[in-house]
User: Fold this.
Amino acid sequence: MDELLLSKIRLGVIAELLTAEWIAFSELQRATQTSNGNLGAHLGKLVDAGYVAEEKTFVNRRPQTRYRLTPAGRNAFVQHVREVQTLLANAGRS
Amino acid sequence: MDANEARDHLEMVDRILANAGDRPVRIIPGLLIVWGLAAAIIDAGQQLYMQHIGGEAGMKAADIALLIGMISSIGVSVWLWRNHRYERISIVEQRMARTMGAVWFTVIVSAFAQPVVFAGWGGAAVWSMGGAIMMLMAGFNGDRRGLVGGLILLASVLIANYVTPHAPGYALAAGFIMGYALPGVLYQFKPPHGNA
Assistant:
């Protein structure tokens, strides 16, 4: 299993980004219901791993930080979910 | 990770993906209002022009007003697009935006195929069809107002084909007001669910 995605918040962030072209930090915060600092730390790990790309821009002269899922992040998510499903299936058998 | 935790994680993922599927495609209301009104004025103005209402000076003034209206519509659109603050853009919305870009690019190019290829009201009808495609795309992605707007625009083209020669422009103009500008006003005051 992917160590990074064992965190529920990080898995939630990747799941949110899965169907999005990009999501702003504030919206991710709303979606995951985490504090600023906590989400920032989790996103930092995902960005460092290359699972998520960060881009800073200005809209209405106000800064906005956007995040998008990378192909590596998408592959890691699919692989991780497959392994979690296998774990559940095995647990059901035993 | 134990089975309970695994189940909890998968349920969360399912919930997030299900919610994403429920999100409607969003449209910038100002764009619909500006372009709906501009197109309606152009269609109605063209009808007046063809009926020689207002004399030669009036027609020249109308031409200049239409040109200014068109240029200012483009300016307002660019301003609205650049200043609209979204917090999330879905993959569906991104694809729809690209498709819309292709549709409107084609429509604008077709404007230069008048009056030979698109004679009479053909050119104006192409704009109505472009608007209808845009609204129907939103409609087919779950937006009821978009669906109704698209159908109104399509109906206006059909009606324009069968009314007296003094009315096609007014029919097309009514289509743009009812099927494009009015949904824009409704989006403005009551955005679709999830309009982040």
The CA atoms of residues 86 and 92 of chain A lie 10 Å apart. The helical segments of chain A are 8-18, 25-32, 36-48, 71-93.
